[in-house]
Amino acid sequence: MERVPTTTTGRELPHPDRAEIRLETVLHALADPVRLRIAHSLDAFGEGAGQGAACSDVELPVSPSTATHHYRVLREAGVINQCYRGTAKINCLRRADLDALFPGLLDAVLRAAARQLKR
Amino acid sequence: MERVPTTTTGRELPHPDRAEIRLETVLHALADPVRLRIAHSLDAFGEGAGQGAACSDVELPVSPSTATHHYRVLREAGVINQCYRGTAKINCLRRADLDALFPGLLDAVLRAAARQLKR
DNA sequence: CGGCTAGTACGGTAACCGCCGTACTACGAT
DNA sequence: ATCGTAGTACGGCGGTTACCGTACTAGCCG
Protein backbone atom coordinates (compact mmCIF):
# COMPACT_ATOMS: atom_id res chain seq x y z
CA MET A 1 0.00 0.00 0.00
CA GLU A 2 1.01 3.59 -0.49
CA ARG A 3 1.71 4.41 3.11
CA VAL A 4 2.83 7.98 2.44
CA PRO A 5 3.69 9.18 5.94
CA THR A 6 2.95 12.84 5.47
CA THR A 7 4.86 15.02 7.88
CA THR A 8 5.00 12.46 10.62
CA THR A 9 7.02 12.89 13.77
CA GLY A 10 6.35 15.44 16.43
CA ARG A 11 9.85 16.82 16.28
CA GLU A 12 9.56 20.27 14.79
CA LEU A 13 12.72 21.88 13.56
CA PRO A 14 13.38 25.55 14.24
CA HIS A 15 13.54 27.76 11.15
CA PRO A 16 14.18 31.48 11.05
CA ASP A 17 11.30 33.32 9.52
CA ARG A 18 11.81 35.44 6.48
CA ALA A 19 12.46 38.70 8.28
CA GLU A 20 15.18 37.13 10.39
CA ILE A 21 17.29 35.92 7.50
CA ARG A 22 20.55 37.83 7.27
CA LEU A 23 22.63 38.18 4.15
CA GLU A 24 25.95 37.57 5.89
CA THR A 25 24.62 34.38 7.42
CA VAL A 26 23.35 33.12 4.10
CA LEU A 27 26.66 33.85 2.43
CA HIS A 28 28.51 32.17 5.23
CA ALA A 29 26.32 29.11 4.93
CA LEU A 30 26.98 28.89 1.21
CA ALA A 31 30.70 29.57 1.53
CA ASP A 32 31.48 26.01 2.55
CA PRO A 33 32.17 23.48 -0.23
CA VAL A 34 30.04 20.78 1.36
CA ARG A 35 27.11 23.09 1.96
CA LEU A 36 27.38 24.64 -1.47
CA ARG A 37 27.18 21.16 -2.88
CA ILE A 38 24.10 20.43 -0.81
CA ALA A 39 22.42 23.57 -2.09
CA HIS A 40 23.35 22.74 -5.64
CA SER A 41 22.04 19.18 -5.29
CA LEU A 42 18.79 20.34 -3.74
CA ASP A 43 18.34 22.68 -6.66
CA ALA A 44 18.81 19.82 -9.08
CA PHE A 45 16.53 17.48 -7.12
CA GLY A 46 13.95 20.15 -6.54
CA GLU A 47 13.47 20.73 -10.23
CA GLY A 48 12.57 17.07 -10.65
CA ALA A 49 9.36 15.45 -9.49
CA GLY A 50 8.03 15.98 -5.94
CA GLN A 51 10.19 18.70 -4.50
CA GLY A 52 12.75 18.06 -1.82
CA ALA A 53 15.38 15.43 -1.21
CA ALA A 54 16.30 13.40 1.81
CA CYS A 55 19.70 13.91 3.36
CA SER A 56 20.68 10.47 2.17
CA ASP A 57 19.89 11.40 -1.43
CA VAL A 58 22.81 13.78 -1.49
CA GLU A 59 26.19 12.13 -1.48
CA LEU A 60 28.71 13.94 0.63
CA PRO A 61 32.38 13.35 1.35
CA VAL A 62 31.88 13.62 5.10
CA SER A 63 30.54 11.46 7.89
CA PRO A 64 26.82 11.39 8.67
CA SER A 65 27.24 13.38 11.83
CA THR A 66 29.13 16.07 9.98
CA ALA A 67 26.43 16.08 7.33
CA THR A 68 23.83 16.70 10.01
CA HIS A 69 25.87 19.66 11.12
CA HIS A 70 25.98 21.16 7.65
CA TYR A 71 22.27 20.74 7.10
CA ARG A 72 21.62 22.49 10.36
CA VAL A 73 23.80 25.42 9.38
CA LEU A 74 21.87 25.77 6.14
CA ARG A 75 18.55 25.54 7.92
CA GLU A 76 19.46 28.03 10.61
CA ALA A 77 20.72 30.45 7.98
CA GLY A 78 17.34 30.25 6.25
CA VAL A 79 18.69 28.65 3.10
CA ILE A 80 16.79 25.40 3.34
CA ASN A 81 13.62 24.08 4.87
CA GLN A 82 13.64 20.74 6.64
CA CYS A 83 10.81 18.51 7.73
CA TYR A 84 10.51 14.90 8.70
CA ARG A 85 8.69 12.41 6.53
CA GLY A 86 8.86 8.99 8.05
CA THR A 87 12.42 8.37 9.11
CA ALA A 88 13.72 10.60 6.39
CA LYS A 89 14.36 14.30 6.66
CA ILE A 90 13.28 16.15 3.58
CA ASN A 91 15.22 19.22 2.53
CA CYS A 92 14.35 21.90 0.06
CA LEU A 93 15.61 25.36 -0.78
CA ARG A 94 13.69 28.34 0.55
CA ARG A 95 13.52 29.89 -2.88
CA ALA A 96 10.53 32.09 -2.29
CA ASP A 97 11.98 33.66 0.84
CA LEU A 98 15.44 34.12 -0.55
CA ASP A 99 14.19 35.55 -3.82
CA ALA A 100 11.99 37.99 -1.97
CA LEU A 101 14.80 39.15 0.29
CA PHE A 102 17.74 39.01 -2.09
CA PRO A 103 16.50 38.94 -5.67
CA GLY A 104 18.76 37.05 -8.01
CA LEU A 105 21.21 36.02 -5.33
CA LEU A 106 20.35 32.36 -5.05
CA ASP A 107 20.25 31.86 -8.77
CA ALA A 108 23.54 33.64 -9.24
CA VAL A 109 25.19 31.47 -6.62
CA LEU A 110 23.75 28.24 -7.95
CA ARG A 111 24.65 29.06 -11.51
CA ALA A 112 28.12 30.02 -10.42
CA ALA A 113 28.44 26.73 -8.56
CA ALA A 114 27.26 24.76 -11.56
CA ARG A 115 29.62 26.63 -13.82
CA GLN A 116 32.56 26.09 -11.52
CA LEU A 117 31.93 22.35 -11.47
CA LYS A 118 32.53 22.15 -15.22
CA ARG A 119 36.09 23.36 -15.03
CA MET B 1 51.51 71.42 -8.13
CA GLU B 2 49.59 68.35 -9.08
CA ARG B 3 52.04 65.76 -7.88
CA VAL B 4 49.95 62.76 -8.85
CA PRO B 5 52.11 59.85 -7.65
CA THR B 6 51.07 57.30 -10.21
CA THR B 7 51.53 53.76 -8.99
CA THR B 8 54.59 54.47 -6.93
CA THR B 9 56.16 51.98 -4.58
CA GLY B 10 57.87 48.83 -5.63
CA ARG B 11 55.83 46.71 -3.27
CA GLU B 12 53.64 44.61 -5.48
CA LEU B 13 50.70 42.89 -3.87
CA PRO B 14 49.84 39.32 -4.80
CA HIS B 15 46.51 38.87 -6.54
CA PRO B 16 44.99 35.63 -7.74
CA ASP B 17 44.44 35.66 -11.42
CA ARG B 18 41.01 35.15 -12.83
CA ALA B 19 41.23 31.41 -13.28
CA GLU B 20 42.26 30.93 -9.67
CA ILE B 21 39.27 32.65 -8.15
CA ARG B 22 37.05 30.19 -6.31
CA LEU B 23 33.39 30.71 -5.59
CA GLU B 24 33.56 29.43 -2.02
CA THR B 25 36.41 31.79 -1.27
CA VAL B 26 34.55 34.76 -2.71
CA LEU B 27 31.45 33.92 -0.71
CA HIS B 28 33.51 33.49 2.40
CA ALA B 29 35.14 36.84 1.86
CA LEU B 30 31.78 38.54 1.48
CA ALA B 31 30.18 36.73 4.39
CA ASP B 32 31.74 39.01 6.98
CA PRO B 33 29.88 42.20 7.91
CA VAL B 34 33.00 44.35 7.81
CA ARG B 35 34.11 43.02 4.45
CA LEU B 36 30.65 43.23 3.01
CA ARG B 37 30.63 46.86 4.02
CA ILE B 38 33.96 47.41 2.33
CA ALA B 39 32.68 45.87 -0.88
CA HIS B 40 29.55 47.96 -0.71
CA SER B 41 31.52 51.14 -0.11
CA LEU B 42 33.93 50.41 -2.93
CA ASP B 43 30.98 49.94 -5.20
CA ALA B 44 29.60 53.34 -4.19
CA PHE B 45 32.99 55.05 -4.49
CA GLY B 46 33.84 53.29 -7.72
CA GLU B 47 30.79 54.66 -9.46
CA GLY B 48 31.97 58.19 -8.68
CA ALA B 49 34.88 59.96 -10.32
CA GLY B 50 38.30 58.29 -10.58
CA GLN B 51 37.70 54.68 -9.64
CA GLY B 52 38.96 53.19 -6.43
CA ALA B 53 39.12 54.33 -2.85
CA ALA B 54 41.86 54.36 -0.28
CA CYS B 55 41.47 52.21 2.80
CA SER B 56 41.11 55.35 4.86
CA ASP B 57 38.16 56.48 2.77
CA VAL B 58 36.05 53.66 4.09
CA GLU B 59 35.04 54.04 7.70
CA LEU B 60 35.12 50.80 9.59
CA PRO B 61 34.26 49.90 13.16
CA VAL B 62 37.54 48.06 13.68
CA SER B 63 41.16 48.93 14.34
CA PRO B 64 43.52 49.73 11.46
CA SER B 65 45.33 46.43 11.79
CA THR B 66 42.07 44.52 11.61
CA ALA B 67 41.07 46.57 8.59
CA THR B 68 44.30 45.55 6.89
CA HIS B 69 43.40 41.96 7.57
CA HIS B 70 39.97 42.30 5.97
CA TYR B 71 41.32 44.02 2.89
CA ARG B 72 43.81 41.23 2.48
CA VAL B 73 41.11 38.59 2.70
CA LEU B 74 39.15 40.38 0.00
CA ARG B 75 42.21 40.75 -2.20
CA GLU B 76 43.31 37.14 -1.82
CA ALA B 77 39.81 35.97 -2.61
CA GLY B 78 39.92 37.95 -5.84
CA VAL B 79 37.16 40.34 -4.86
CA ILE B 80 39.22 43.51 -4.92
CA ASN B 81 42.32 44.84 -6.56
CA GLN B 82 44.83 46.80 -4.52
CA CYS B 83 47.69 48.98 -5.57
CA TYR B 84 49.77 51.63 -3.90
CA ARG B 85 49.56 55.24 -4.91
CA GLY B 86 51.85 57.29 -2.76
CA THR B 87 51.30 56.26 0.81
CA ALA B 88 47.73 55.33 0.11
CA LYS B 89 46.52 51.93 -0.98
CA ILE B 90 43.83 52.15 -3.60
CA ASN B 91 41.14 49.49 -3.65
CA CYS B 92 38.63 48.66 -6.30
CA LEU B 93 36.30 45.81 -7.05
CA ARG B 94 37.36 43.27 -9.66
CA ARG B 95 34.09 43.61 -11.48
CA ALA B 96 35.24 42.39 -14.84
CA ASP B 97 36.73 39.21 -13.46
CA LEU B 98 33.87 38.43 -11.13
CA ASP B 99 31.24 39.14 -13.76
CA ALA B 100 33.03 36.89 -16.21
CA LEU B 101 33.33 34.04 -13.75
CA PHE B 102 30.06 34.38 -11.88
CA PRO B 103 27.62 36.48 -13.88
CA GLY B 104 25.22 38.44 -11.75
CA LEU B 105 26.70 37.33 -8.47
CA LEU B 106 28.44 40.50 -7.43
CA ASP B 107 25.50 42.68 -8.33
CA ALA B 108 23.09 40.40 -6.50
CA VAL B 109 25.22 40.51 -3.38
CA LEU B 110 25.74 44.25 -3.50
CA ARG B 111 22.09 44.95 -4.10
CA ALA B 112 21.15 42.57 -1.31
CA ALA B 113 23.58 44.36 0.98
CA ALA B 114 22.18 47.75 0.06
CA ARG B 115 18.66 46.52 0.56
CA GLN B 116 19.46 45.03 3.93
CA LEU B 117 20.92 48.31 5.11
CA LYS B 118 17.56 50.05 4.68
CA ARG B 119 15.76 47.89 7.21
C1' DC C 1 8.73 -8.41 18.76
C1' DG C 2 13.45 -7.68 16.48
C1' DG C 3 16.11 -5.65 13.21
C1' DC C 4 17.02 -2.19 9.67
C1' DT C 5 17.62 2.47 8.06
C1' DA C 6 17.87 7.50 8.69
C1' DG C 7 19.33 10.73 11.21
C1' DT C 8 20.91 12.96 15.99
C1' DA C 9 23.17 14.48 20.22
C1' DC C 10 27.36 14.59 22.54
C1' DG C 11 32.00 15.21 23.38
C1' DG C 12 36.46 16.01 21.88
C1' DT C 13 40.22 17.86 18.82
C1' DA C 14 42.66 20.68 15.73
C1' DA C 15 42.35 24.45 12.82
C1' DC C 16 40.81 28.87 11.74
C1' DC C 17 39.02 33.56 12.46
C1' DG C 18 38.30 38.22 14.13
C1' DC C 19 40.05 41.21 17.01
C1' DC C 20 43.52 43.98 19.27
C1' DG C 21 47.98 46.50 20.56
C1' DT C 22 52.59 47.37 19.62
C1' DA C 23 56.30 48.23 16.83
C1' DC C 24 57.51 49.02 12.32
C1' DT C 25 58.04 50.79 7.09
C1' DA C 26 56.91 54.00 3.17
C1' DC C 27 55.92 58.06 1.38
C1' DG C 28 55.02 63.09 1.28
C1' DA C 29 55.33 67.56 3.35
C1' DT C 30 57.68 71.02 6.08
C1' DA D 1 66.39 65.89 8.25
C1' DT D 2 62.17 65.51 10.68
C1' DC D 3 57.58 64.79 11.22
C1' DG D 4 53.01 63.14 10.20
C1' DT D 5 50.01 60.05 7.85
C1' DA D 6 48.77 55.46 5.71
C1' DG D 7 49.20 51.15 6.13
C1' DT D 8 51.69 46.56 7.78
C1' DA D 9 53.73 42.55 10.18
C1' DC D 10 53.70 40.11 14.27
C1' DG D 11 52.12 37.84 18.23
C1' DG D 12 48.55 36.70 21.18
C1' DC D 13 43.80 35.72 22.80
C1' DG D 14 39.20 33.86 22.83
C1' DG D 15 35.44 32.20 20.20
C1' DT D 16 33.84 29.45 16.36
C1' DT D 17 34.12 25.71 13.03
C1' DA D 18 34.75 21.29 10.66
C1' DC D 19 35.49 17.04 11.53
C1' DC D 20 35.09 12.52 13.64
C1' DG D 21 33.48 8.37 16.47
C1' DT D 22 30.36 6.54 19.56
C1' DA D 23 26.08 5.92 21.48
C1' DC D 24 21.48 6.96 20.87
C1' DT D 25 16.25 7.75 19.04
C1' DA D 26 12.46 7.42 15.47
C1' DG D 27 10.01 5.22 12.26
C1' DC D 28 9.25 1.15 9.07
C1' DC D 29 9.09 -3.72 7.81
C1' DG D 30 8.98 -8.48 8.35
Automatic annotation (TrEMBL), chains A, B:
SUPFAM superfamilies for the chain: Winged helix' DNA-binding domain
InterPro entries membership: ArsR-like_HTH (IPR011991), HTH_ArsR_DNA-bd_dom (IPR001845), WH-like_DNA-bd_sf (IPR036388), WH_DNA-bd_sf (IPR036390)
Domain HTH arsR-type, chain residue ranges per copy: 15-113
Protein name per its UniProtKB record: Helix-turn-helix transcriptional regulator
Species name: Streptomyces axinellae
